[in-house]
Amino acid sequence: xxxxxIGGNAAGLNAASAARKTNRExxxxxxxxxxxxxYSRCAIPHVISGEIDSFNRLIVYPMSYYRMMxxxxxxxxxxxxxxxxxxxxxxxxxxxxxxxxxxxLILATGSKVFIPPIKGRELQGVYALRTIADGERLLEVVxxxxxxxxxxxxxxxxxxxxxxxxRGLEVTLVEMLPQIAPNMLDEDMAQLxxxxxxxxxxxxxxxxxxxxxxxxxxxxxxxxxGGRAEADLVIMATGVRPNTDLAxxxxxxxxxxxxxxxxxxxxxxxxxxxxxxxxAEAINLVTGRPVLSQVGTTAVKExxxxxxxxxxxxxxxxxxLNSSVSKLLDVEVGSTGLTERMAExxxxxxxxxxxxxxxxxxxYPGAKDLSxxxxxxxxxxxxxxxxxxxxxxxxxxxxxxxxxxRAGMDxxxxxxxxxxxxxxxSETWEPSLxxxxxxxxxxxxxxx
Amino acid sequence: xxxxxIGGNAAGLNAASAARKTNRExxxxxxxxxxxxxYSRCAIPHVISGEIDSFNRLIVYPMSYYRMMxxxxxxxxxxxxxxxxxxxxxxxxxxxxxxxxxxxLILATGSKVFIPPIKGRELQGVYALRTIADGERLLEVVxxxxxxxxxxxxxxxxxxxxxxxxRGLEVTLVEMLPQIAPNMLDEDMAQLxxxxxxxxxxxxxxxxxxxxxxxxxxxxxxxxxGGRAEADLVIMATGVRPNTDLAxxxxxxxxxxxxxxxxxxxxxxxxxxxxxxxxAEAINLVTGRPVLSQVGTTAVKExxxxxxxxxxxxxxxxxxLNSSVSKLLDVEVGSTGLTERMAExxxxxxxxxxxxxxxxxxxYPGAKDLSxxxxxxxxxxxxxxxxxxxxxxxxxxxxxxxxxxRAGMDxxxxxxxxxxxxxxxSETWEPSLxxxxxxxxxxxxxxx
Lengths: 448, 448
Prior knowledge:
Chain A is of the alpha/beta class.
C-alpha cells in the first residue's frame, strides 16, 4: 500500500506520523514544495521579533526522524495534478515530472496568501509572510528599516506589528474593518486590545482602506483613508485562502466555505482521498455548520485523523471551536467559540457578560488585570463563546471555557464551576468562570 | 427577619454578603471570635515567606464594607450554645453573655487545628498556624531563627516549609505517611515533587513518626524515626478537623465524615439552620459520597448558597472535586478529583496515563517541564482525577480538567479536546489533555 501526502507541514507531517504508527508496512510519501521539513509557521513572528534566535529552531523534526519513521520525504517537489479515477499524482522535482500511483491520498495543501489588488503591491519592500523563506528575507530588511506599515489587523497582522515594534521600528497598522482581530473578538473587546497596543507604541487605524502603496522601485510610504505613513517596508497581512486548486481541478467537492468538503473521517468526495488542515472544511461545534479553521491545533489533529484512517485505522474528528490565543507585547488575548457578532450572523441571539478581574489574589504582588467576555445562547443559556484579554494565564482559561462549550454547559454550570486557588496563581472567585457568568445572571434577574 | 451567622471568614462573609443581596430588609448578624474581619487564611504562608509585606493586606474588606452592606459584624464575640427549638444563640463578648434570637442560622465555624499527642508539643517555639495572630507570633520568631522542623507534609506543611526556607532557615519536614501531599497526589507524583523541594534545600523525611519535641522551656530539636533535627521552632501542620462542637451539642446531625451533614441547599437537620465551609460535609462529584472539603473555593461557594437560601432565595451547591493548587518554590502543583489511591479506597478500579511535556513550544525560551497524571475509571474510561506538577500554568490546566470531570468526559473526549496554542504560551499538543490521554490509549491498545 502506498499513501501519498501532498503538503508536509502541520497536517501533512501529523498524517504521515499517524499513518506510520497505524501501519508499519505501508509506503508513505510526503511531498513538500518548500526546501525544509515541517516547521512551526505560528512562530515566524517570534523570530522576526528576536524572541527566538533562529528560524532553524522552528523545524519540528530533523531529517533523521523521517528516516526512522520510513517516511519518504520529497522536498522541493510540487504536485501538479491528481487523477482520482486512475489514482495517480503528477509531481515535479527539478524540472522533471514523475507520475506516482497511490492507494490512499491525503491533501494537506494548506492555505495560500491572499493579497487584494492594491496599487503598488508589487513594489520592492512589500512582503507577505507565509514561509520561513519569506521570514528570512524580511528579517534582513527589518534590521535596516526604521518604519513599517502592516496592512490587516487579524492575528497575523497584529503579531507582525508587535514583532516589528519590538525590533524598534515605527509601526502603523491599517485595518479595513471597524475593529482589529475580527475573527476573535467583538468590537468592545477589540477596542480594549487596541488601546493596549497603542499604549505599546503601535499606531492603529481601523475602518481604513489602503489606497496606495507609494514609492519608486522601493516602497517609501502608504496612503490610506485617514492618513499616510512612511514605510521602509510593508507587510500584507490580508489573510489566507484555502489552497484547493489541485482538488478542484480533480473534481473533488469543494464546500460552501471554499475549502475541501470532508466528513468526520476527513474523507473527501473522492474515494480513498482525504484532506486535512487549512485546505479542508471543519464543522463548528456550536453551530454544526462548516467553517474554515486556520489554526495549527486543528491542522495537527485533522492530519492525525486523516493519517490513521488512510492507513486502515478508524478515528473521527469532532469539529472545532477555533480557539486561539496570542501574546502581543505584554498582553495575552484568547478566544473560543462564537463572538456575539458571529453568533448574530448565524441567527443566534445571545446574552453576554463582561467582567474585569485579577489574575491572582489582588493583594499578591504582580496580580494583573483580566478582562473577560462570555457569550451565551439567549434561550438555553448555554455558553457559545468566550473572549479574554489579560496579563497572564489566558491560554488555559480559554481551554477551560472551550471544554465547557463542548460539554454544553450553561451559565449556571459556570457560575458554580469548580476551580482551584492559591494567592500567587489565582483568585478565589475566578473572573473567567464565576465573575463573567454572575454578570449574566444579574442581567437575567433584572429582566424578571 | 434576623439571620445570624456564626463565623466571619470565607464561608461566613460570603453568606452574609449573599444574604444581603438577596434580602435588603433582613437583619444580618455576623459573629466572629477573632479581632479581625474576614481575611485570606491561604495567604498566611506567603506573608511568612516575605512575598506579601503585611498581614493587613489579607483583610478581604475594610469595616466600611460591613457598614455599607448593613452587616452587623461582632468581632471578638464567641457563640457558646445554640438552641434550635427556641431559635436562640448564646454569645459572649468581653465576658458578657447575650442571648440572641434568630430566624435563620448559618454555621460557618470552620475547622480547628488538630495536634496529635506528641511529647513536647507544649514547649515554647512550637506553633500551629491557623490565624493571623498565629502568623504574627510566628513571624517575630522566624526573623531570629535559623532552623525549623515542620511536622506534617500536607499542603499547609509544604507551604510553611517553603516559606521558612525562603526566609533562609534550615528546614526539615517530617511526614508520617509514606509520601507528601497525600490528599492531592499519588506516591509517584509526590516523589517527583519531593525531589524538586529537596533540590530547593528542604530536607524531607516520609514514613517517619515524630517521637519527641525536645527542649527545656524552649524547643531545641525534634527526634523522629530516621533522624533528629535541630529546631529553633516547630510548625505543627498535622491537619485540621471540622469545628462542630456547637452543632453537635445542639443535636444537629453530624455526618460520617464528622462534619455537619447538609443537603444541596446547605440545610442541616435542624429547621432553618444552615452550615457552610469546612464545618460542613460536601458531596464528591465523582463518587457521590460525602467528603470533607478544606479549600477556600468550596467555603466561599457554600457560604454564598447558604446565604441566599437563608435569606429566602433558592440555589444549590452541586458538590466538590476538591481541586487545589499551590506554588512551592518555583514548582506549581495542582490536583482535582480522585488520586488512584483514593479511587481504589472507594472500590473504583482505574487506568492512568502519565506524560512529561512542556509548558510552551519547546523551542521557545523559558519553556518548562510539565508532569501530568490523569486517572480514569477503568470501565467507562471517564476522567476521575488529575495531578500536575510543573513550572507554570498549572491552575487553569487543573480547572480545565475539573471541568472535564464534571462534564463526564472520557479518555476519547480528552484525546480530541480543543485547545488553543501560541508558541510563547503553550504547545500544539497540550500535555495535560492530549499527551496524558494518549498514554492511556496506548495502554488500552496494547491490551487488546
